[in-house]
Amino acid sequence: MYSHASESFIKQAREIPEPELQKFYSKLLKLLQGKDFGHETLDSLQRLYLILSVNKYTKLLPPELQKKLLSLLSSPVEQLQVLSSAVLRETLPLSGQELSYNQENISQLNSHAAALLLSQAESKADLSSLCTLLLRGLEGRPSEGPSPSLMLTLPIINTILTHSPDCLTEDQVTLLSKKLVDWLRYASIVQGGGASSGGFFTGPRSRQPVPIAELDGTVSGDFFTVLCVGQGFTEDQWMNVYSFSMLRHWLLTYHSCDFYPSDDRSEVDGSVVSMVSATSSSSRLLPPKERLREKAFQYCQRLIEQSDRKAHKRTDTELQKACLVEAVCILDCVCVEDASLVYRTFPCIKALFGRLSSDLSFARVLIPIAQFYLNHGEMAAVDCDGVWMLVFGRYPGELFNDPFLAHEFLRFLRLNLDSVQLRVPQYIRSFPNLLKFLAWDSPAVVDDFVDLLPSLVTPGTAVELLHSLLDLPCLTATLVLQLRSVSLPIAEPSGRGVRLQDAFRNPSLRGLFLFLLRGEAGSGDTIDRLSTLHELLAEAADWPRVVHCAQVVPVLLHIYFHRVVEMADEKLLAHLILVMLERSSLLLKIPTYIREIHRVFSCHLLRLCKRRPSLVVDQSHELLEFAGATANVYSKEEIFTHVVWVLGEYLSVSCDSRCSVSLITSCFEALEAVLFEITSSAPSPGNICPAPKVITTLMSALAKLASRSHDLIPRVSLFLSKLRTAARSGSVAWCADEEDLVSVVTRGEELWSLLKAPGVAQSVLTPPAHINAPQWHRDTNVASPLQLVNSATLRGF
Fold first, then answer.
1. 751 Cβ neighbours under 8 A, 6+ residues apart
2. Which residues, at least 6 apart from 731, have a Cβ–Cβ distance to it below 8 Å?
3. Which ranges carry the AP-5 complex subunit zeta-1 N-terminal TPR domain (predicted)?
4. Boundaries of every domain in the chain
5. Residues 83-124: pLDDT tens digits?
């Protein structure tokens, strides 16, 4: 969201009148016609960009102004290049003034002009022509100093391939593959520009070639890579860096999917290819694709060796990590393309894992290593348990607050979900650890868990996972306390959160927090002292992270229940109903959170019972115990109403032959007692009047039960008669709104009228299955009285 000042500024730019805009164009043109471009010119260009970018429709600039802006693309001042390119990308090019380059002026191309050139490309043919132009520029001999146009070639081509990978011909792919091989493997091994020993007679002839160095300062004894350093770099060394940066994209685009099927391999027998690949000295015999694959393999192995050197600068250490990530990803690509490389690559990857596994600062590198083990571990018959124990154990447990790692790790899981479920037994068991990412930064990762959560729901984890989701805000608070306990001293001055911090460190309460922080499932579904934990964490209910976490739990619960209904048997569903009833009163004290959870429980209680009506008889004791507690009318109105409706709807012989008259009677008496209690007196202090929906649902449930056991009809009729009499005598204590009272009395009169004819009451309140089927509107022979009865309304909802 923009600030108020920014929004006002944008509104002014969007609503600028046309005459004023033309004056502004003229003023800017005069400024650009001058020799020196000061702050006023830069400010005017920035204002022009704002005006063009915030408008819905693309505008045309005056021809002279457009021409001046095009000329700024070759300005020596980069800020002018940036602004002119940005402005021109927001406009329509005038006929005859499109930016264009040919073989003569392609050397003048810079990155900002290239961005404009790509934005103005109207077809695949335009992109193909530009690629042809750029590739022709590669045929020149390497120069001593870097040529801007040559150095831009690979980034521009890489961008083009992202949008239109088929714009290169097969010959162009072959040409660029050969060039990539040369740049990656045969770049110069001396520093660019030469080096001087100093002194009075220093001159061009006295400069001697200085070899490139490693990051630890030693002289490099092998070919040049992106991890080599020097005082300057030659053009082919720069192209080496650019080649490495686009290598993975190139391999994925033109190698993995066999973009241009060819019979390159037919030129060399398959056994010969395998044999030749093992010796770099003979690799020139390979076709271009295989040769590039072999050089990519050698390059990445060299990078892994270089990453073991102690860098002198912190920035170089970060560069080593980034290069390791890319190198392992490229090795994975080439092994996917050529399975014979797996056996040559695994010793290197295994040694790298052994070297980095104890250092949490290299956690980011472990994700591509895990990808490599996942893709090739089975083929190489290696033990992957150590990798999975680290990736699913220590990293989420200790680095849950690293946003980049969370993104990369969850992306890895989403992209490989089927393989992970099949090959990684630790995945399902580690859901308590995975949920730490969600608990810590819910808004950032909730989309990932929307995809992952169904895979974590199994018959063995369903109950524990439900408890874990309900206690997710508690886990958030506990993670905050865990980090604070490390960073803050024990003897901290009095302040907010000190009591919680002391509780976290208290040995007698430590077990409560350790259960939430567990790394694997299986130690128990939940803990006995949940109410104690919620009391301790009540102070954390308004912490921002806790509030954000509480907002995403209902969304995930919907996904959880949709999945559980598909895979659970009746025994598990019965257990989940008990969990819902129990946990409806055991939630962290956040009012909006409690209301949303009750709403989710109510929704899915109906779905479960509709799918398996026999669950109501199986769990009748627990459901009656819940519905028979008058306190639930006030504290759990939503779920109480739905429990009552379920009892009235499905406690029937037609739903379950085990439903006896005694069970119907006991249910009737429990609901009757609750209804009598809430309608015979005013609510206790601190409670508001029960909602009309609660009372009408109770009345409907009693009428349904009485229609199945006619001995109960007089009792319902008597109550409904007294209700009508009490309402007519004046206001009642249990209903404060007159309209609500009228609605309740009207429903009571409808039910009373139905119960006067028990046979009709049973057919309306407990219709057979074929009556419930929505076919009546299609049958012209249906008796009209059945269409006139709004049975759904009379049945409670």
1. 699, 700, 703, 716, 720, 794
2. 738, 741
3. 1-278
4. 1-92, 169-192+210-256+286-380, 383-489+497-603
5. 888 888 888 766 555 566 665 556 667 777 777 777 777 777
